[in-house]
Amino acid sequence: MFRCSHSSRRGGKSQNRTRQKAHGADPATKFGAFFLSADESDAEVSQKQLRQRLSYVRSVRERCAELISVEEQQQERHQRHLFEAVLCVSVRRVGDDWEAYVVRCFPQQAAASEIHAIPQFCFPDSQTWKSSVASYESETFSFVLTSSVGGRRFGYCRRFVPLEKGSWIPVVYCIISHMSAFVFYANVLKEIQNRHALSEAAASTFIGAAYRKPYPPPGDSITICCCGEQRDMLHVSTFTRLVDSRLEHVDYACLLHALGISQLVKVFSAVLMERRVLFVASRLSTLSSCVHAITALLYPFIWQHTFVPVLPSKLLDFVCSPTPFIIGMLSENCAQLSNMPLSEVLLVNLDRAELSWQQGDEGTLIPRKLHKALMNALGMCLDDIGNNTKNLMISEAFIRLFVETVGHYKQHLVTQQNGVRLLQKDSFVNAVQSKSTRVFLQWFCETQMFEVFVADRLQEAPAESCGLFETRLSEHELECYTTKHSTTLRSNVKVFGKKMKGIGERFLRAA
Question: What's the predicted TM-score (pTM) here?
Fold first, then answer.
């Protein structure tokens, strides 16, 4: 059963002291200085703790094996149009309650069976809606629809109060797409809002023109032209995708600033263990941004379990699931949790940077040296730099963590005499010199996300492994060669620090 322990707040003093040490240094020195003096020995984890972790992740994998399939990789060529559909959704009174409903849909032939569940995600708070509002700050958020075979479609929403005289009920324009590109679609939604301010007909004309455009590749732009209502004016809008696709759907900086460094690393550790994590926030935009960011930090791994960035109040029972989940919930529903049979759920309050119901081992799951290096690298991301640069630095810090821990996996992929390829787990784990990293790998190798990661790599030809993670692995191997290190993984905080120093130099110059 669910047990409440003391909540914790992010600590400000230790972070301030760390930042003061770097104050006044040049950017490169400031970014890398934290890593070079750490020489602590490996953290001790008892055999009992290790057995408990192994037992948990193995039970999760066995329980979910029949329910989880590898997520279908949605290729961009499969979506011929800019999006699959756009819905306009609002709320209306039904007796004493409010319900969300579809006002109109484009294209009109979109299957009713596919859109019937969408309104409740556009208004996850419809059951607690009090009345029409006198003012409302527009916000953008997103949700995910998962098919029975694991494929995902994204819903991008813009919620605002129309400017029509006498209208105080918000509407939501929701774009449904297979593509993960929050920033791109958020800009399209803002233009739809601008056109709606002119008239509903102007918004519909723009949506129709946008639908016929192809989805652009990273770094490319599309231009949408449509006539005004009087046919006397041509409206032209240009939308550009970001060059780096890592920044298209996530705002890592939002998550870091909401939780702080220490709390963020604890939540990330719990997600690595495939535990049940429940995020709460008062704003939909904060909630969806942070929930998407925590799963994106798992790259090159993919969360394989229940994932609901914004949970409608009608579906609150989902938080009682016995299987792992990452769920976002509006804080107005928190009072109902005390009456629900929750079990071992980490509650993450994004508004107050608090963690509740911790199991107590979140600070020891990541190897000690790498834990400290990660904390210090994230500390540099709190500097006053551009948001895109900050997001890249946060992403690179977590990618480097996985390079240091699992980057040697290719050396232990073997082909048996019968032609079957597999990962030799024992040799993979024992190849690491660091004891704490070996302990980490012992349980992490049993997680569902690691199993899927390996299965995907075993199906690929060596030449096909050319993603960002493989690029970072190649760079790491070159570092080991040029510095006369062994190609066997070394959990050396100084090497991690030098790498992050180089990343800092490159990104701070670009800021």
Answer: 0.78
